[in-house]
Amino acid sequence: MPENGTGEWIFEQDWYKEWQGSEKSKLLWLCGGPGTGKTMLAKRIAAKFLLGPGDPPRGVKLAHHFASPEPPADKTSTDEAESRKLKIAKVAWDLLYGILQQDGSPFDGCETELRTQGDKFFTNPNSLWKVLGKAIHDCPTDSVYILIDGVDGLNEDLCKELIGRILGLMKIGRVKIFLSSREENKISKSLCGGYTKINIDRNDSVKRDLETVIRSKVNAFGGWNDEEKAGAIGTLLAKSEGTFLWVSLAVENLHHSCPGPNYGAFLNKLPSKLKDLYRKMLCDVQSLEGPEELLPMIRSVALALRPLTFGEFGYILARMGKDQTRAVQHRSPGEEVKETKPKKIHLKTEEEIRKYVQSSRSFLLATATHVSIVHHTAVECLFDRNIEDNPQVPGKSELDLTVSWECFRYLHDAIGDLQKSSKSMGSQDKFRQSGSKGDHPREPAEAIQEVGQSGREEAVAKWPYLRYAAESWFLHARRSLEFAEHKFCEDPPRNWLQHEFFDTSDTTRKTWIGYCGDPKMEALAGEQTKLHVAVCLGLMPLVEKVLLDGNLETNQTNNDRSLLHLAARFPSQAYKVLIDLGSPSLLTAQGQYANTPLHEAAISGNWKMLRALVEKFAKSTDSAHSGQINKTNDFGDTPLHLAVQFDHPDIVEFLAKNGADPTIENKQGERASHLGEKLGRGDSSGILKQAEKALEEAKEEIAKEPVGGVVDQSGKDTAAGAMGETEMESGDLGVGENEVITGPLRVSDLLLYAWAVTFYYIVVIA
């Protein structure tokens, strides 16, 4: 929360009162440089509006979203389209969840979509923004206030799409948008006028808040007299240039590195620009001597996908600087991986961790339980190769690969040890209960699964890096692929496929699923081929390696799911190589409910894969590939029906213009357009009605032609021919695989499930 006594001035400003009291929708853009208190003011406003836990419900007051800056990357990720879709969905989910917490009456829209789409609703931006719009429209309050902070941390395309959707909400009802960010052209261009802009750089009220913060921090110094404190306060205020983050960093360095009498000389050496201060901090870190490698440790925290617990940080710290390289030998299928036993690592205590954080020159921040990087702007400095005093900066992708491999090995060590302990306990139980009827020895996988359900905290206490390793090894691996792909499999020690994780048996994977935090990974339970595992994880170098090694297992299925079914649900580039190198029958394989890969792509919203399949079928001479675009499943649904049901209007339009027949009825007697009307899919219904009309007109035109006439009618008797085929440039990619919900739903059910969804967003797209 903001410092006591700060930020209150904003409520007295005329521009704020006008924004709040307007009878129309209005957008207020509060902008300023990095670290100038924008987020602090946003939090102050949120605290002013939101109800306290003991207050009576009075309807919706404010919904908010604090955007996380995009993680550092050397190049554009192959999963960018999927990441963009999830981020847009997360904003809508945060706002919708905030509304439902304050007023459960708009729950009906959520319930309808949950019954129609199941868990896929939570990652479908099109549906989430529609339901959010309906919830805002139905809110009993006169105005709905929405606060969005940090959009400047998003790339230009994502920023433009998000602002466009936010502006769309203002047309639904009386919606007041409070936007706080840096002043950047990508934001002003996306807003397109009609807003109030306030720049708080060098604002007098901000300066007074800054003085309050400085006084509070410096007066807490022990061992300083009043004169020294007053002098330090004056110098800090003069050099701060209205930047709260600069003050925070300067005060921390002053407190831990300078005795009171020397404050003047120390502060005079501090640069007044935030970027220059980061560079000085970097030089100071490099000049330190100690047993640990401080700068690599700081970069490891900066690269982490979330704040690290003390246990996780302590493990990394203890391992830094130690030679833990293990010579991993290749094995034959079924043979155990043989590794040299790692040296015992002595974990650091909380006191040692806090001292280490202090030595980071304020790059690291410690709370009561976690360690993180002080601010996302510090990451830019730590990986900036243009800084002269930043020699031998490693590539972020190479570091991601290193972290991924360390997590992967740790995961095997931890699970192996836990299984060994479970085996031992199982043997003791069997001995003690040998006379009981019906007793049977537990398999290691059963025993460890029980530990995963009831004793995960105990397991993490023994293996403190286990949870982060499970959550993050494959995410770090995916982030490394763009720059370090050539190193992913070529480095001999990194023999990923020889480890138990990729075995047919799920002995290791079953335990991992319980810790990874991603409900989608349940698909990896049970027996799997290496290729199925690699496809689900989106690790393209491993997919290609299996295929190039001659292990063409492309026709095998897993729980009625072919490789292309999995590729549709776990978007990556895997679909490309599978379509190109897989057998022709793979393209038409039928899974659960006789859904083909094309059906699955329509369900998941995997637009790129769907387009690739349609193009492949159009060029194929294989008779089995003809008519796939209109193939029906066990319910009589075509891919067009499913694209409507799961609310992907871009896919509906593409299919309608590329050969899909909108007049086909499913076993309920419904055309896709009828299904759209029933489900409230106005955009898809409009597209399909136009297609049906064009098709009918084309048929009438054909009927009027003379029998002996020579007229080119090619394609006119299809929706594609009638409407004219068009190429689409972009589309959504989708995730999710759970069944559609059929039981009774309550607001509390949704809010409880929200914890799992929120965790998934944090870990997977943070």
UniProtKB/TrEMBL annotation:
Query: Sorted alphabetically, which InterPro entries does this protein's record hold?
Result: Ankyrin_rpt, Ankyrin_rpt-contain_sf, NPHP3-like_N, P-loop_NTPase
Note the Pfam families from the entry. Ank_2, NPHP3_N
| Segments of this protein annotated with the region Disordered | 62-81, 420-445, 662-683
Record's compositionally biased regions (Basic and acidic residues): 72-81, 429-445, 667-681
Q: ANK repeats: which residues?
A: 635-667
| SUPFAM superfamilies, per the entry | Ankyrin repeat, P-loop containing nucleoside triphosphate hydrolases
Which positions fall inside the Nephrocystin 3-like N-terminal domain? 5-182
Q: Which domain of life is it from?
A: Eukaryota
Ordered alphabetically, the record's keywords are:
ANK repeat, Repeat
Record's protein name: Nephrocystin 3-like N-terminal domain-containing protein
